[in-house]
Specification:
This protein is an alpha/beta fold. Helices cover 35% and strands 23% of the residues.
C-alpha cells in the first residue's frame, strides 16, 4: 500500500524495506516511530521476515496492517532478504533498513530530494547516531585484507594498526558535509532502484556481511556515485555481534563465522 501525502517534496516514490530476523520488539518500535513522523513523500513499507520464530509476522499483522509482509520459508540472510524486498518494491527509490534503525524527522525527505537533484548518484547513506548521541562510523574506504584481522586482534591496538583502521573508518573526516565515499553501511541505505537493478541487486553468495561492500564495487564499476549524507540523520541501536568478544570466543559465534566466510568470498572476488 502506498501512502498518499498531500505536500510531497519529490515526484519520486519510496519503498522502505525492513529486513527482520527475530527482532520483533525493535521492529515494532521502529515502525511505530516511522508512522508517527509520517514522512512527507509517497511511500510504502515492506517487511521481509527471514523465517523468524519470535512472533514477528503475527505482530505485524496485528499492529501494522498497512505494512506489506513477505515471509520467507528460510533465513535468506541480509542479501537474500533485501533482494526479496527489492523485487516486490514499487518505488523508484528504495530504502533498505535493519530493524534497529530509527528514522528522524525529514531524514528520508532529505535523502530522496538529494537523489532527485543528482542523477549520477546511485545511493546515499544517512549519518548514523548511537543511542548515546555519539557518531557511528558508517562510511568507509574499501578494505584491505588485513583490516578484518586488525579489527579483531591486538594488532589493531598497535600504532600501525590504529592508523590503518582509522583510515579505513575515515576518522580524518568530520562527517559534517556530504562526501563521495567508497561504500556505506548496509544497515541503512537509500538507493535508486534502477541502479540496483542494473547491477543485479545484492550478491546472495554473501549470507551476512560484505554484501554492501560488494554492491558498492559494482555500482562504482558503472560510474555511479555513493554519497554519505549527514543532513539525513538516523539512530542505529547497533551491536557488533561478530566482534563483541575476543577472537577465540567469537569463533564460536555464528555471526563471526559468517563474517569470516563473507570476507574470504569478498577478497577472492575483488583480488
Amino acid at each position: 500500500m502506498v501512502w498518499p501525502v498531500q505536500n510531497k517534496i519529490s515526484n519520486m516514490t519510496l519503498s522502505i524495506i525492513y529486513i527482520n530476523y527475530n527482532t520483533r520488539q525493535l521492529l515494532k518500535q521502529s515502525l511505530k516511530h516511522l508512522f508517527l513522523i509520517s514522512p512527507a513523500i509517497d511511500f510504502e513499507v515492506i517487511v521481509v521476515d527471514n523465517n523468524s520464530s519470535d512472533g514477528s509476522s503475527e505482530m505485524l499483522l496485528e499492529k501494522f496492517p498497512q505494512v506489506k509482509v513477505i515471509r520467507s520459508e528460510k533465513n535468506l540472510g541480509y542479501a537474500g532478504g533485501a533482494n526479496l524486498g527489492l523485487k516486490n518494491a514499487s518505488g523508484s527509490v528504495v530504502a533498505v533498513f535493519n530493524a534497529d534503525i530509527f528514522i528522524t524527522q525529514n531524514s528520508l525527505e532529505t535523502a530522496v530530494n538529494y537523489m532527485d537533484n543528482h542523477i549520477d548518484i546511485a545511493m546515499v547513506g544517512p549519518k548514523l547516531i548511537n543511542a548515546d548521541g555519539s557518531l557511528q562510523y558508517s562510511c568507509y574506504q574499501f578494505p584491505r585484507p588485513y583490516i578484518p584481522i586488525l579489527r579483531r586482534t591486538f594488532l589493531g591496538e598497535t600504532k600501525w594498526g590504529k592508523r590503518k583502521v582509522d583510515k579505513y573508518l575515515m576518522k580524518d573526516y568530520s562527517h559534517e558535509d556530504a562526501r563521495q565515499v567508497d561504500w556505506l553501511l548496509g544497515g541503512a541505505l537509500i538507493a535508486r532502484k534502477s541502479a540496483l537493478f542494473e547491477v543485479g541487486f545484492f550478491d546472495e553468495r554473501y549470507f551476512l556481511y560484505f554484501e554492501d561492500t560488494d554492491l558498492a564495487h559494482r555500482l562504482k564499476d558503472k560510474n555511479y556515485k555513493l554519497i554519505y549524507l549527514p543532513s539525513a540523520k538516523m539512530y542505529h541501536l547497533h551491536r557488533r555481534e561478530s566482534a563483541d568478544t575476543g577472537l577465540l570466543k567469537s569463533l564460536f559465534n555464528p555471526a563471526t563465522r559468517a563474517h569470516i566466510k563473507s570476507a574470504i568470498k569478498y577478497f577472492w572476488k575483488w583480488r
